[in-house]
Every structure is written in C-alpha cells, then in structure tokens.
C-alpha cells in the first residue's frame, strides 16, 4: 500500500469510493444493459455526470456513520454505548430529509446539510420501516425484506472496534428496516469485509473468504453468493459474470456483484474500471457500484480515487469528514467529538 494508506485514509477512501460508485451508477439504475449501451455507447456509462449527485445509498451511509459516531463518542465520554439505537435515530433523521424541503433553524450535524434534503429514489422498504413506531432486529423482524437497502449503507459500520462487532452491528443496523436474513446478513458480511481490509489490513480475497464462512451461520444464500463471486473473479472480469450473479435488487446479489467486481479488478489503477463493471449491467447499478467503490477504497485508500470524479462529487467534504472521523475513532487518532455528542 502507498505510505498514505493509513486506517484513516482507508476510511475516507471507503466512503468516498462508495459515493463515486453510487453517483456513477445512479443515472442508469433500473435500466437494462442494452438500453444503457444504446445511450452511452458500447462501454456503457464510464464516468459520473458533471454534477455527481449522491444516491440514497450514500445518503444513508452518511447517517450510518453519524449514528455510529454518536454512540462511540457517547461511550468514550462516560455516556451510554448504544450503537444500534444511535444508528436507528440517525436513520430517523435521514427520513426527515426525505419529508422536508430544507433544514429547520438550529439543525445540527447532517440535518444541517441542505443538499441532503433531496429524494434520490430511496427504497420503499426503508421509507416504510422508518415510518413505523417500532423498528426491527434479526430476532424480531418487522418484515421479510431481503432487499439491498441494508447492505449498501453498511460500509461505515466496518469501522467498529473488532471484526465480530462489525459483523454483528452490520446485521443489527440493517435489520432495523430489512427483516429477511438476506437483507441483514449481507450487511453484516459487508461491514466485516470492510473492517478486515481497512482496519486490519487484510487482502480482499482473504477477507471475503472469512466473511463467507461467518455469514454461513446466519444466511446460506449470502454465503453461496459470495462463494460464487470469488469463483467467478478467478475467471476474470466479464459483464456476463456480473449478470450470472443476479441483478442486485436483493442484498445477497448486490453484495456478490460488488465483491466480484472488486476481486476481478483489484489493483489500485483498476478502480474506475471496477466500478464501471459494477454499474453497467441490467439491475441495481448504483448499489452494486457503491459496494465495489467502498471495498476498493477501503483496501487501497484515497490515492486510487479519480481526482476528476472527486471534483464533481456532491458533498465530498462532508463525506470526507465522516470518513476521517470513523477512521480516527477506531485507530486512536483525535477528531472533533463534540460534533456528534449533541445528536439524538
């Protein structure tokens, strides 16, 4: 890794990489591959639009990070350590941004960011679940959804203090809205992979293998999808392989596609090609590209991110700040904890 690739740098790379993948795939979400190629050429969409807007996956990832950091700073300053409750409250704050037009006077944290008050085709499962008085858990699900809305927001949870905690919190935070095992176990696997590569410095194939074994205890569908992604990656990069893994509407498929593209094109200089592969298919292009971007950013750090893309990314400074603070929280570096202590 380059000398600058510290845990903090990898955390920033993880969040920014995910946002870049999300912004690349968002314009072609819901589109079939022939239609994408008809509009963008035989290589499909190759870079984010001139205004690279955040999709709902990145919006909710930011609130995942803010919620986790509220719990961490509370526990670090003598208060309660309730990460799932804090993330649930953060998701309720995100819901406010989907219901109101602009920040209210005195808004703090992410609620003060005007750009977040934009509807970017959020998943109905999350909207409906967060509108209910009681949220779910793996043991007490509120629905049976295994949609990808849990896994594509789970990367920040990977910066929990330990690998098993990252997995468990990833599962629990996704189960707040997605009650099917594929909906929450895939999120736990994603958080675990991020932790292993960004915090522990593991290589991506080994991290995926470990996550496959861990998630098998909770959801065989996710474990089988990850194993197939690993097998296909050894055969090289191919749109056909992506489509063989599914379309990405459900958590196990979205995770498998994102992992496959990161494994098939793993080198630092292949970041752009990897997220392009993850975006150009008939399916949930923004979520799958976001997962790929998060994984490669977590593995290699910020040096792999295309500077031209970063220059057009919405709220890049906010994403960088949350990423920095997540990395600092689990590596013992200082950051401004006061910005999170006052959040609900």
From TrEMBL:
<feature type="binding site">
    <location>
        <position position="56"/>
    </location>
    <ligand>
        <name>Mg(2+)</name>
    </ligand>
</feature>
<keyword id="KW-0326">Glycosidase</keyword>
<dbReference type="InterPro" id="IPR005502">
    <property type="entry name" value="Ribosyl_crysJ1"/>
</dbReference>
<dbReference type="GO" id="GO:0046872">
    <property type="term" value="F:metal ion binding"/>
</dbReference>
<keyword id="KW-0460">Magnesium</keyword>
<keyword id="KW-0378">Hydrolase</keyword>
<keyword id="KW-0479">Metal-binding</keyword>
<dbReference type="InterPro" id="IPR050792">
    <property type="entry name" value="ADP-ribosylglycohydrolase"/>
</dbReference>
<feature type="binding site">
    <location>
        <position position="286"/>
    </location>
    <ligand>
        <name>Mg(2+)</name>
    </ligand>
</feature>
<dbReference type="Pfam" id="PF03747">
    <property type="entry name" value="ADP_ribosyl_GH"/>
</dbReference>
<feature type="binding site">
    <location>
        <position position="287"/>
    </location>
    <ligand>
        <name>Mg(2+)</name>
    </ligand>
</feature>
<comment type="similarity">
    <text>Belongs to the ADP-ribosylglycohydrolase family.</text>
</comment>
<dbReference type="GO" id="GO:0016798">
    <property type="term" value="F:hydrolase activity, acting on glycosyl bonds"/>
</dbReference>
<dbReference type="InterPro" id="IPR036705">
    <property type="entry name" value="Ribosyl_crysJ1_sf"/>
</dbReference>
<protein>
    <submittedName>
        <fullName>ADP-ribosylglycohydrolase</fullName>
        <ecNumber>3.2.-.-</ecNumber>
    </submittedName>
</protein>
């Amino acid at each position: 890794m380059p000398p600058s690739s510290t845990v903090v740098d990898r955390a920033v790379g993880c969040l920014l990489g995910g946002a870049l993948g999300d912004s690349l795939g968002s314009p072609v979400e819901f589109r079939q591959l022939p239609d994408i190629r008809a509009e963008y050429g035989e290589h499909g969409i190759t870079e984010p639009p001139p205004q690279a807007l955040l999709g709902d996956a990145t919006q909710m990832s930011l609130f995942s990070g803010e919620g986790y950091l509220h719990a961490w700073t509370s526990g670090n300053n003598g208060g309660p350590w309730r990460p799932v409750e804090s993330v649930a409250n953060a998701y309720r704050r995100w819901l406010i941004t989907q219901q109101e037009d602009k920040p209210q006077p005195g808004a703090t944290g992410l609620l003060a960011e005007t750009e977040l008050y934009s509807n970017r085709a959020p998943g109905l499962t999350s909207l409906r679940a967060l509108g209910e008085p009681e949220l779910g858990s793996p043991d007490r699900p509120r629905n049976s959804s295994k949609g990808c809305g849990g896994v594509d927001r789970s990367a920040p949870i990977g910066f929990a203090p330990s690998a098993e905690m990252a997995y468990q919190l990833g599962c629990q935070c996704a189960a707040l809205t997605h009650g099917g095992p594929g909906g929450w176990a895939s999120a736990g696997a994603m958080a675990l992979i991020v932790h292993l590569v960004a915090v522990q410095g593991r290589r991506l194939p080994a991290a995926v293998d470990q996550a496959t074994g861990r998630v098998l205890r909770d959801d065989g569908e996710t474990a089988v999808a990850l194993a197939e992604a690993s097998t296909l990656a050894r055969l090289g990069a191919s749109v056909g392989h992506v489509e063989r893994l599914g379309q990405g509407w459900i958590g196990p498929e979205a995770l498998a596609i994102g992992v496959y593209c990161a494994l098939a094109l793993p080198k630092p200089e292949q970041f752009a090609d990897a997220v392009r592969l993850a975006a150009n298919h008939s399916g949930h292009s923004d979520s799958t590209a976001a997962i790929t971007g998060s994984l490669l950013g977590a593995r290699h750090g910020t040096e792999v991110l295309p500077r031209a893309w970063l220059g057009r990314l919405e709220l890049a400074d906010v994403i960088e700040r949350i990423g920095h603070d997540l990395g600092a929280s689990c590596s013992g570096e200082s950051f401004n904890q006061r910005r999170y202590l006052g959040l609900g």
